[in-house]
Amino acid sequence: MKTSRRDFLKTGLALAATVSAGRFTRALAADVPAAPRTILAAVRDGTRTAMLDRALAELGGLSQFVRPGQTVLIKPNIGWDVAPDLGANTHPELVGHLVKLCRDAGAKSVSVFDHTCDQWQRCYATSGIEPAVRDAGGIVVTGDDHALYRPVEIPRGVKLKSAEVHSLVLDSDVFINVPVLKHHSGSLMTGAAKNLMGVVWDRRFYHRNDLHQCIADFLTFRKPDLNIVDAYHPMVRNGPRGRAADDVVELRSLLASTDIVAVDTAAARLLNQNPADIRHIGLAAAHGVGTTNLDALDIRRVKLA
Amino acid sequence: MRRWLKPLRVLLAVVFFGVLSAAFLDFRGLMPTRLAHAFAAMQLGPATLAAVAGSALAAGSVALLLIVTLLFGRVYCSVICPLGILQDAIARLRPRRRTATRFAPENKTIRYGFLTSALLAVALGATGVAFTLLDPYSHFGRITATLGRTALVIGNNTLVPAAQTLGWQALYRVPPPAPPLGLVLFATIAAVTVAALALWRGRIYCNTVCPVGTILGLLSRVSAFRLTIDPAACTKCADCLRACKAQCIDLRAGRVDASRCVACANCLSACRHGGIAYRFAWRRTQRAPDPQRRALVAGALAVPPLAALQAVAAAPRRAPVAPPGAHSATRLLDRCTGCQLCVTACPTQVLQPAVFDYGWLGFAKPHLDFERAFCNFDCHRCGDVCPTGAILPLALADKRLTSVGTAQFERSRCIVETDGTDCAACSEHCPTKAVNTVPFRDNLRLPAVNESLCIGCGACEFACPVRPQRAITVTARATHTRAAQAVEARPQLPKPTGDFPF
Predict the structure, then answer these.
(1) Which of B29, B428, B495 sits opposite A241 (nearest CB)?
(2) Which residues have CB under 8 Å from B74's CB, separation 6+?
(3) Is some CB atom of chain B closer than 8 A to the CB atom of A243?
(4) Is the pTM of this model over 0.80?
(5) Å from A259 to nearest chain B CA?
(6) Cβ neighbours of A271 in B, within 8 Å
(7) Interval B59-103: pLDDT, tens
(8) Of B488, B323, B186, which Cα lies nearest the Cα of A236?
(9) B443: closest chain A residue by CA
(10) How many CB atoms are closer than 10 A to CB B304?
C-alpha cells in the first residue's frame, strides 16, 4: 500500500512538474533530461482557507496526495495551552479546513494529534483545534499515551538512531505536516522539521543529544508527504510559547511543498532569518532529504490580494 | 411523614456522596470546579477553617449547619458527611439476620478524649494537623483520591486497548496517580479502620472517634426536634433497635440518646406501631451531663505527643513549593486539612501530596512536584476547588503573576555549555520569559534567568533534560510575591509587506 502510494505520488508530481516545466523551454533545452522540479507554493494576502486552497491547487490538488479510502494523519503544532491569536499553535481554521478537504477527497479517516508540551487536553481545547477537527469530521487522538508509540530504528541517524514514534505516523497512508511558523529561543525557528519532534515520545532525548542533529535525523526515517506552513501571523519573538499577542506579526502567508527542507528554507526567510544559521536545515539537506537551494525549485509565488 | 423521612434522607445522601465521590475520582477534569467546591465547602471542618479565615460565605455555611443540627439533630452526619454515608454503604454489606444490634452505652472516655485532643491541638497551634487527622470529610477525600481514584485509573487504562480496537476514541489512557507510599498507607489504615468499625457496629466511628460527630452530638442533645418513644404505642418489639445504626435506642429506659442519633430515620421506617416519632422537645429539655473529667485527662495526655510532633518538624532538605494562592507554606500548613481535592483537580498532576516534605506537620498537604509536571500558566483549579481557603482562589491575571519560587540556572551543568549544542528546553517552556536565551559562542543560545519575572511554575525545571542534577531548578519562596511583567515594544515586521523574501 505504502509503496504504491509513493509511486503514485512520484508519478503525479513528475507529471505536474513536467507540465509546469513546459513554460521553461530554456531549461528543457539543456542536454540533460529535465529532472521534475519540486513545487513550492508560496501564497500571500488571503484568508487562511483561501491560501490553503490556492497552494493545494498549485501543487496539483489534494487528490495528488489523498486518494479515496486512505487513512490520513494531519500533524499540526498543538504544543501549548494558548489561544489561537497568540500564534503558538497552528491555527484551528487551517487545520479544520484541511481535515474537511481530506474528507472531501475521500479519505477513510483523518486523524490529528500532537505530543504536546503543556497538558494535552488543555492544549487541544484552548488551541481550538479539537473542536475544529471534530466539526470537520476528523478524529482527535491523544499524543500523551506511551502505549500508542512504537520503537523504530533510524539507521541513517547520526545522533537519533532509534525513537519511539506515534503509531499514527507508522500506520497512516498519508502524513501531512502542518506546522505554525514561529521563533524559537533554542533552535531560532520552529517550522516543518522542528514540528516533527511532536511525533516522538522522548522529546528530552533531542535536547540532550544535539537538538538540531536529532531533528534532521528523524527526517531520514520518515518525511511527511506534504508540508503546509501556517505563516499567517508568525511569532517573531519569545517563541516557541510566546508571551503575549503582540509577539506575532501579521504576514498573511502560507507555504506548501513536498520538500520539507525547501519549505523550511523559505520559512526562515519569512522570519528574516538566514537559513544557514538554523543548523537543522543544513543538516537535513546534508542527509539528502531535501534542498536548501530554492533556485532548484519551481516556486509558485501567488498574491491573492 | 414518618415513612418518607428515610427515603428523603437516602436521596439527599446519594446526591452529596455522589457529587463528592465524583469530584475526588474525576481523573479527566470533567467536574466543574464550582460544583466540587460548593459541596466540599458545605463540610463542617473545611467551612469552619474558612470561616475563621474570614470567609463570610463559609461562616454562613457553618451557621446554617449548626442551626439545622439545633433543629433536627445530626442530619449532617447522615446526609452531608461523605465518610458517614460511606459507612452506611459498608454496613449494608453485613448479613442482616446475624447482627444482634442492641443498645450500647456511650463510651465517653474515648469520645470526649478525641474531642479534647482535637481542641487542645487547635489551641496549641496545630490546627492543620488536628483537621488532617480527624476531619471526616478529609479522611473521605484521602481514601477516595488515593485508593479509589488509583483503582479507577488502572481500570480505565485496562479497558483502553479494547476500546481502541473497537475504534472508540472516548476512552484514553491516563497516567496513574501514583500517590506517595506514606499517604497510601495512611489512607489504607483509615479506610480499613472505618470499614471494620462500620461492619462491627454501624456508626461507632462517628460516635466515638469523630470530633465533628461529637460536637454535633453535644448540640443534638438540646435540639428542637428529637426522636421520642411513645410508651403507650411502643410494644418493645425492638424493630427500631435492629434498624438503628448508632445503637442509641434504649428501650428499657424508653429513651433515645440524641447525642449519638445520626437522624437517619431508619427507626421511623421500621416501626409498625407508631411508637417512635420526632417530637418538639424544647419544652422539656433535660440537662445534658457534662463530659466526664476522665475524658479531659485522656485528652490532656494526648498533648505531649502532638507537641513532640511539632518539635520534630525540622526544616527539610529542599523546601517544597506551595501552590499559588497558598501565600506561604506556613499558612498552607495551618489551613489545609489534606483532603486532596486540589490534588485531584490539578490537570497536570504537578500538585502532589507531601509526606514529610514540609516536615511532620505538612503530611498529606499539597506541594508542586516538578519531577512530575509543572504548574500550568493558565490554570488555577486548585484554588477554585479548595474548601478551606488554604489555597485562595486567584483571578487568572493574578495567578499568572503570583511568584511561588525562583529559577536558578547552573551554567556548568547546562548542555549548551557542556556539549556545545542548542537546547533551550527551559526557555521554550517558560511562560513569562523569565528564562530566555542570550547569544553564546558558535551561534548557540544560552539560557539566562530574569528573577523578577519568574513565577516559579517549574516548567523550566521539568523540561531540563540534564541528569542526574538538572541545570535549572526552582527554589521555593518562603512567602509568595508578585512578579514583574515584561514590557516590550511592538515587534517590527521581519520583512517589508507585500513581497516574498525568496
Answers:
(1) B428
(2) B213, B216, B217, B220, B261, B262, B263
(3) yes
(4) yes
(5) 16
(6) 494
(7) 999 999 999 999 999 999 999 999 999 999 999 988 765 555 678
(8) B488
(9) A277
(10) 9
